[in-house]
Amino acid sequence: xxxxxxxxxxFGKSLFxxxxxxxxxxxxxxxxGLYIYDKWDWSKKHPIIKIDFTEGNIKTPExxxxxxxxxxxxxxxxxDVEITFQTxxxxxxxxxxxxxxxxxxxxxxxxxxxxxxILDAIENIEYAKENREILKDLYSALKKADPYIKLAFxxxxxxxxxxxxxxGLNQLNDITLDPNFATIxxxxxxxxxxxxxxxxxxxxxEEVRKWYNGYSWLGEKxxxxxxxxxxxxxxxxxPYWFETGTPTFLIKLFRQYKYFLPELENLEVGEELxxxxxxxxxxxxxxxxxxxxxxxxxxERRLYREVYTLSYPNYEVKVSLNNFFLLxxxxxxxxxxxxxxxxxxxxxxxxxxxxxxxxxRFFASIPYDxxxxxxxxxxEGFYASIIYALFSGAGFETIAEDTTNKGRIDLTIIxxxxxxxxxxxxxxxxxxxxxLKQIEEKKYYEKYLGKYEEVYLIGI
Length: 460
Fold this sequence. Notes:
The chain is α/β, with parallel strands linked by helices. The protein has helices spanning 13-24, 61-79, 88-103, 116-119, 125-144, 162-165, 189-194, 197-200, 205-212, 225-234, 240-243, 248-257, 271-275, 284-290, 315-329, 333-348, 352-364, 368-374, 380-393, 431-442; strands at residues 2-6, 48-52, 107-112, 149-156, 173-174, 267-270, 295-302, 305-311, 397-404, 407-415, 418-423, 454-459.
């Protein structure tokens, strides 16, 4: 009777909890015409406690204490009961028991964004840890009140380990990666073609899929519901979901670990890294997956464990995320936009020599502190990451670490029925010749011959 579901922001978790609330409240008429209508005991009405962290910023322990204090005052008024305990776990336990006695029915506890007080404070690790301990104490009340609980359902963005948050709830059923619940949030292809049949006919279905489909939790892929609803309303393709929140905390991790951006297209991780988030050891891969910037592309069994391949879910996220990273290297947006336009024109007009000038000027615009502080002038991955982000953010079709039977191509760009194979080398002299030599010797270009109009080899 204890369930947990993790999904990215704006994926319908709150609406899902509201649906559960209405069912356990016995509001039968709301479900008329739906599957549950004649399969539910509507005569039973359970008291429902809703703990909601969705509103406001909770960046400090003091913020969290104020939020919880106000929440319990509101719950007292809603149910007309008195709470005398002083600790938050005591207050929750007392409230559950009081409602059980008052209504003679077990209580339903719904927690919306259980982890938000931790994520809001994630840039201050000490605050995040303090908020975690406050929440751990709060949720410990659920185990003690077990006989009086009908259902407890918690949702959030992240999957913090049971030990760190839910140490007492050994029976917590995490359905995040359960294939049976893969489409519980988000829209399926069938949803679009039935529920939204009158809306989707106005759009190119392949373009809609390219922009907003691709999210996978070990089942059928789903569309981002926030994007779809705004697309139908605004009638134009835009990164609506990405624009509602930017992952600034990720930039610090990328800088700290000198992360290789092209790896995000095919990132292999173990199940243990994917499952649990730990404040004491934050991993970029884990955060990107749980916040919705990466999704599961493939699962493979290797020896005793599952290996997951992560990638961008769709065009919106790939372009927007790379643009976001790029703007933290090049704060001058007008220069970035100008560079992207010049790149497109150079490739369109076959002015390959002009690429050298465009890229040289672009790297010259990166603040010197980036090189001096990060020792990046000798870091090959830095240059590859910047160029990858530049082309991906501009909307070009890019393939990072492109596999051939002779090895891996650093970066492949496909545009206008032409292929551009790029190899990077950072050495003091003759870098271009060395990079080109590797492409030629390993014949990376062979896989594209005959499939595209022209193939260009570029050494950087």
